[in-house]
Structures
1.
Amino acid sequence: MSDPNRLGHLVRAIALRARIGDLLPELHQHALRVAGGRCTVLTRWNPRTERLIGTSAAGLEQLDPDPWLRTSAERTAAERAWDVDTPLVFDNLTELNGRLGSRAAILVPLQAGEDRLGMFIVGTDDIAHAKRVTTDLAAVGDLLAIALERARLQRHADLQRDFRELLADVSRAVSSSIHLSASLEIFCNRARVLLSADRISVWLHDRRARSLDLIASSDAAEIEAGRRLPTDDASIPVTATMRRSRAELVTHGPDLPPDVLVPLKGRRRALGTLELTRLQMEGGDEIDLLDRIEEVARQLSSAIENVWLLEDVLRSRRELEGTFNSLADLVVVSDERLLITHANQAFSARVDRRPADLLEHPLAEFFGADLVEWVDRLRQPAEHGVDYESRELEDPLLGGTFVFTVSPLVGREDERIGTVIVARNVTDQAELEAERVELRNRLTQSEKLAALGQFVAGIAHELNNPLQGVLGHVELMLQSPAKVTARAKRDLKLVFREADRAAKIVHNLLVFAGSRRITRRRLNVNHVVTRVLSLRATACNAASIEVVKELAPKLPRIAGDALLLQQALLNIIVNAEQALATVEGPRRLEVRSHRRGRDFIEIQIADNGPGISAEALPRLFEPFFTTKEVGQGTGLGLAIAYGIVQEHDGRLLVTNRSEGGAMFTIELPSGSEAVE
């Protein structure tokens, strides 16, 4: 094949082939034929060391690994060839001619624009022929430059692809596991093979400890050693690099591969250092390779920072959930559909459901209707700028009294996306407060009754004597055989009746004042109830009152005064009869007895009358307080009943029934000893 044909063949080969290793033998042989030379050497320019390193040769027994064109004369000759960008023949480079074993050397400059790629050296003995073929050798040099640049670009493309695959693998590892060290181990091992380095390590900054810790390395022994460096020691290259903005080469001599240290930077702070030990670099590739390593470091920094942010979020979430679940108050979060989205452990324990089983369930399933209606109302735009409300409610589904605080849950745009309900259980406090109020009321009532009792006792005794005298004289006059006119007789009977009524009032006052001493005996409560109902049977029938009696059998006996208890029951039942008299339609009186616990017996008297007004209810047992018309009551009946029950160490309670009417409850202790 002629030289022009061979040259065209080489051009096509360069256009079609990507591997320079397949082209170099043909280019060497073509140059030897063109120049009539003895040998050829292809050297690559290393801009970092400013040396030419041999990469391939033809016609030599062995390629000398030492730098080429290293003497002053040789460097001057090389500079001339690069400057004129034309092959030059030199016969005065003694050392170079000795290494080539020839009389002269042809220096063919290899350049890509302004960038030096290397030098193609041809050793020849025919100096005259060499000078005639410099143009042909220039064409060979151009082909070599094109081939080298194409190979460099292909190598960079392959390296970029491998980097992308490496980063994709690291990203997948990071996504599938939040254990950063394991993900970085994958990166170090893969990158070491890809970049032909002896070791690749990742150092991360621990701000609290002010140290740089070795987190991952392709060398397992380094990890086992657990190395840690102080960040304030700028003499250590790894720590000093962390504060720099660009990668740095650390050389170990002209013939040893360098180390590369790359800072790992986050958005706001330094993350650490990427260390590449003994990185193999081809001449001319340093700058481009460093740029790509820095790009890898940036993406690695982004992945590390994302993992740290995720760890911070997860840690914050765990802390928030720990705080959320450690609250003793019940906390529930619902969306705008009033469906539960979050609930703490206290609430799930209260309703005996797992937290996961509460999600997407309606609030109405766990809260009473009053609260749900209140929350639903608060979903409307707040009035007067009030964003939350608190209220004490007794919730039947939660089973207790709670102070509920309802506030809106807002999103990123300050829009309402749900509701937060906090419930503090105040059942015990409410019960204690109710007992305290009741004890205070009872104490106040007792003090009032005691003071009033002393007052009325004295008046009653003073009134009782003249009243008995009046009654006695009127009765004698009515029984006198002397003739009494009919009109006088009617007047005497009226005087007797009113005096007798006054005497009964005085008697009630004495009973109320406790002048009658209680006599405790063992008695059956049901017998007392039955006796009172028998006394009132005629009056109830006349008033069309249906009497329902439900007395529990075998109730324990109590220690008490049967006559006084009968008086108390009679006063309460008469009061119920008078209330039922105002009702049109069916009238019903219910009397029940039963045992409450081991120590108490309860007697309940209920009617379906109009009930007791809210204003009258707190004053119902006050002496002389009455809601009846003037002349129809003295206001002492219920006060007397209250005092009698208290004398028996019991309680008299009154409430309005939900179905209508009032209910009186007498609680009497059943465990006291009877006095025979």
Note: The chain has a mean pLDDT of 81.
2.
Amino acid sequence: MFCNGQKKYRLSVAILIVVSLLICIYLIAFSCFFSKKQIQSAMIPVKVYSQYEILDGGKVVYHFDKDTISATGYFFNKYFFIPSCQGRIYADFDSTIWQNKYKDVNMEKLVQLHIDSLKTKYSQSKWIDGELSYYLKCHNASDEGFFQISQIALKEENLRDSTRKMLDSLKHLSHKSLKIVRHLEFVAISPSGKANRKQVEKLKHVGGNVFQLFSETLPEESCALSFHKSQALASMSIVPVLFDAKLDYFLGTTGTYSGEVDSLGLPHGHGEWLGFTDAAYYQGSWKHGKRDGFGFSVADKSQLRIGEWVLDKYKRERLVYSSDRIYGIDISKYQHVIKGKKYNIDWKRLRISHLGNISKKTINGDVNYPISFIYIKSTEGASLLNPFYRKDYVAARAHGYKVGSYHFFSTLTPATLQARQFLKNSYVKSGDLPPVLDVEPTKAQIQKMGGVYVLLSRMRIWLRMVEKETGKRPIIYVSQTFVNRYLSKATDIKQKYQVWIARYGEYKPDIKLVFWQLCPDGRVTGIRGHVDINVFNGYHDSFKQFISNLK
């Protein structure tokens, strides 16, 4: 009996030991060994938003040096064997995030540095605002990108206002009770469970690299690891987990990108890019890391570029021609004399019926456009006259057209004689369009006359003489090639005089302009043969304003 009882006791003890060992093994496995799925569900991106603040008498007057530091965190249980996460996260951040790098800096020098920086920023904003205003003046809601540019213009205005306020704050500091502190804000970015959307929740800093959700609860479908496991994984993590196809990241050392990406993490789809050094901004379509499709870019001291991009190259704005635009023509003796025969113009029937075949165009609707302005060739060089000029000028004005006169510039005769020739033989009346200097020399002609600087000098002479005598500032008519090769060598001409561009392509000329000649082979009802067709850079409101400013 006693022997049997002893055996039962020993068996019970053995069973208890085995069960205890199994429980220990289970708990150790629970705490130390996790599946890939469990690790992924414990993973959560953590961000630290950092900024420095200048306090004047304890009041925040200015903040600067904003930064965002990202790391991959892991939910963990507080106690080894017990599910006790309560929203605790371990994320491995460098110790420098707790340091104030401006602790011993000279406050007056720092403040002056930021005043200078804000002045530069304000100046840049004014430049960009001018570019955006120019675009909005020349476009309307029917143009692709108009809404986006309007929004950017509003943001730029708000930026400029805030910059001015910050400047005022810094200029009126006491410099006696200034203090710099570093402000940190911690957030976790977790999936909400609804279509993989992100949910941002603020974190409490518990201590060291341990944080806790304000809700103090482990999110649904998330898993908690042991502390040591989360610590080990966090120290090895480099790239944050992404829950959708959008992200923010650095493009080398040149800027940041925010938007859609492809499977390799390259910009693909719609996205925005902001440069570090030049504040260059691009918003639009991307294709495998390159700007491709419709988009727009603006930067300090650079012209707004809006339109189509192909493999990172800007192709310019593609024009859609419709009845909403303002069209005009320019004529000379060649609309009267064709193959030795003379023809009159039927002024009562004038309508644009065709935009030519020399280049590809995007046309909305039928081409049957009214003519809003007419330029007529008056003179060429120092001696040539258009024999039909006076008759055409009088007829065009009589039929209610806005009329202007142009001079074809010669590289063979002095500019003073050419200006006198134009002034003597041309009408420039009140309400007329500005006179135009038509400059179309070949490269050989420019070299023969002494080079491009001689040409530009003679252009200045003609422009100044005609403006002084007529009271109207002339327009210069040149090709896109002339603009690209030579106009940059005469910034005074480029800035002072409006430009009329001859460019026969599917894209709008890449320069600020008043008119552009879209084809030399158009058709106009009432005129024999080909006619140069032109379009005003703007719509009806802009054209009315342009006309109202004529002297």
Note: The first strand starts at residue 43 and ends at 56.
